[in-house]
Specification:
The protein is 29% helix and 33% strand. It is of the alpha/beta class.
Length: 360
Amino acid sequence: MNEVAGADVLCLRLDKRKGESALRLLRGLQLLNTGFKIGHDDDQLLIPLIRPPSEPERSALEVDLGHLRMNRVTLTRVSHKPRTIIEALKDQLAPHQLASLPRSIDIIGEIAIVELPEELHGYEKAVGAAILETNRNVRTVLQKVGPVSTEKRLRHFHVIAGADVTETTYREHGCLFRVDVAKVYFSPRLSFEHERVAGQVGENETVVDMFTGVGPFAIHIAKRRRNVHIYAIDMNEDAIKYVRDNIRLNCVEDKVVIMKGDARTVIEKHLSGKADRVIMNLPARASEYVDAACLALKPSGGVIHYYTFGEDPDPLEKAKGKLSEALLRAGRKLEKVLYSRIVKGIAPHEWLCVLDILVR
């Protein structure tokens, strides 16, 4: 709460030793004025009241507090900090602009990332300031600018409030990740998926993480399992740097092998037939790499965690159909869909979907 200018207010004056009882009674009678800070005068408390107590209320108070003394005193007014950006901006934006404010903000460590519609053009700094005001751990607010690039899944940002930094440390389910959001892909909205997939991995499995980014899937798995072998692949040099740092940060160097390069090339050269499980978190191009994922699996088969984009209607069924066709082309068969769900919306009528499949 922030203190602001004072004003004259009716106060109950009483001995400090009776303060706790007085506050309890005044709250029960709905007489306590929480818009002002309690005053002090030597050994006396000055408790602000909303209104004079009625005769029955006065009698009830005097049972515990004795004779009541009241007078008007200048006390400091207290304003409550806004809890949402809508509350913070209600006096600055028109109703239609308030309605267009984003309902979800990605917060990665001390960085908040927001996407703003055309209706808020010119109000970017006001929105950024509101986000800082309502999120005490945030030091930087970034606005998404332009589309996501296909290869490295990167997006450009503008700093609209706070410090001009894009690197931070993010904590997720007991794991720590250093990440520069301008150089590597990372989404806190996949937190549940990171933990869910890690929970499926058994002891002594070999896992190929084809598009590892800063290593969230690989590190979650390594932290949960005593005996596991994980190959973390990425073609982004910055991602390789950060996954290396994050492996050290989480003390899992003995379980994760980092491999730089295109996933297909790395698998063909080094990982053919090794994996019990493959993770494919590259939704825009996952279908192009199904053959490589199949090559990585052991000849007897295994599990693929497949992330892709799907459109209405029935995005999961469409994703399943395309995946089945890609598996057949790769000489494999979809034996069973172990799990499927829509992870999040990415555009009107378009969704990020996940399919966990058993392949033979």
